[in-house]
Amino acid sequence: GQQLNQSPQSMFIQEGEDVSMNCTSSSIFNTWLWYKQDPGEGPVLLIALYKAGELTSNGRLTAQFGITRKDSFLNISASIPSDVGIYFCAGLMGGGADGLTFGKGTHLIIQP
Amino acid sequence: GAVVSQHPSRVICKSGTSVKIECRSLDFQATTMFWYRQFPKQSLMLMATSNEGSKATYEQGVEKDKFLINHASLTLSTLTVTSAHPEDSSFYICSAPRVGGYTFGSGTRLTVV
């Protein structure tokens, strides 16, 4: 199936640093979602974006829905140890009757 | 908030046997449930979509006779992996659409030996 191009694949950063990751697609999506997945668990929703150009924050997390509707980014400011995990972008082309298309994930590793 | 309860969290079965995975919506009615599969260090791939009261739809390449889906009520969807083989070992996750985003179950780690 179709996948989103998510980068970087992994990040090694120091605690306190800011993090940025993004997803791009050749197709237009109506909704962009960002999830975090801990080992052995299901993804947990971080931020949902519904409009092109929308910029939304959730605590230290900020995400934007690209103007072209083909991309999105997620920023994490002042990273802390519990931010470690795998972050996935997910796009939805239609409505609630469609499953999500996921990026390949960004593995965030934080060095104390 | 909306919770999807998935069981079992881990299962080990012998090759050739069948395994049933359940997903229940605890505080809402899920007319649709999506089933994903995730291999180690890879992304989630949509396998099938179950709809309450009708046949499930399967993504290309997913065998409907091997992965039986039942969505008999508005709060329960099940995935049965029939005649499991080692290559079916994976992390299976269900998800239901909700206002504000999709809610995921906690996943089932299937190991076929």
Determine the oligomeric state from the structure: heterodimer
Mean pLDDT of chain B: 93
Structural class computed from helices and strand pairing of chain B: mainly beta
Strand content of chain B: over 45%
Give the terminus-to-terminus CA distance of chain B: 37 Å
Helix content of chain A: under 10%
| Unreliable parts of chain A | none
- The dominant shape of chain A is globular
Let me know the number of strands of chain A: 11
Q: Please, how many helices of chain A?
A: 0
Q: In this structure, how is the largest beta sheet of chain A organized?
A: 6 strands, mixed
Measured distance between first and last alpha carbons of chain A: 38 Å
Write the layout of secondary structure elements.
The complex is a heterodimer of chains A (112) and B (113).
Chain A (H helix, E strand, L loop, with lengths): L4 E3 L2 E5 L4 E6 L6 E7 L6 E6 L5 E4 L2 E5 L5 E6 L8 E8 L8 E2 L3 E6 L1
Parallel strand pairs in A: 2-11
Antiparallel strand pairs in A: 1-3, 3-8, 4-5, 4-9, 6-7, 7-8, 9-10, 9-11
Chain B lengths: L3 E4 L2 E4 L5 E7 L6 E7 L5 E8 L2 E5 L8 E7 L2 E6 L8 E9 L2 E4 L3 E5 L1
Parallel strand pairs in B: 2-11
Antiparallel strand pairs in B: 1-3, 3-8, 4-5, 4-9, 5-6, 7-8, 9-10, 9-11
